[in-house]
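Q: A reviewer asked whether we had any structural model of the full assembly, not just the individual parts. We don't, so I'm hoping you can provide one. Inputs are below.
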Amino acid sequence: MPDVAKIVDAKGQSCPMPVLMTAKGIKEIESGQIMLLEATDNGARSDIPAWATQTGNEVVESEEADGVMKFYIRKK
Amino acid sequence: MSSDPDAPDSMTIIAFSGDLDKLWPTFILSSTGAASGMDVTVFFTFWGLFPLVKDDVRITGYDAMTKALAGMNAPGMKKAKLSKLNMGGSGAWMMRKVAEKNKLAPPEDLFEMCQEMGVNLWPCQMTMDLLGIKPDQMVEGLGEPVGAATALQKMAKSDIQLFI
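A: Here is a predicted structure for the entire assembly that you could use as a starting point for your response.
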């Protein structure tokens, strides 16, 4: 599991909040650091990778267990 | 399309309707666009201007007809109607309840996110003059009122243009 500089908990939040919280969170870490985003919104499954592609950040790892999605995002 | 390859993607939304169920897509797309690094502008015109009036302003307008229009189309985001099945406001109330139950943020919160994310929020000067909506009756954090040419200039440079 990658080293995480920051954890953003978006569980229970609906679209578009997980993406907005991701965007806000990523501003608080340094380039190259990794942020963990946790979400339960089904839209996040495609939205977080789409956001990453659009912004140039990278989802280095993702997993899903018990309805909770975890995205490890490396800041560009 | 932007001629500068390094310029961020850009989106312009014309917010025309002011209906509650159209405020959601307007604010969801604009906040998400800004969160994705896009240069986002929302141009509020005609009925779209009414949700920008402060909720405690009961009536806008400068004469009998403009006041009557505002009377039948209550200003303020909290009073926004559904585009269909409004049923005297009970439809809008139900939609807000359903949104709350599903953890969908209300338009008021999403509007705040838009401001936080740096979305340009431009009121239409002509509509303000036409319907008698004064700057001090509107919420804080808006851009300067602009006209059609300014909106078009922005749209011409945008990758995405929407009319909601």
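A: Points you may want to mention in the reply: The radius of gyration of chain B is 16 Å. Chain B has a mean pLDDT of 95.
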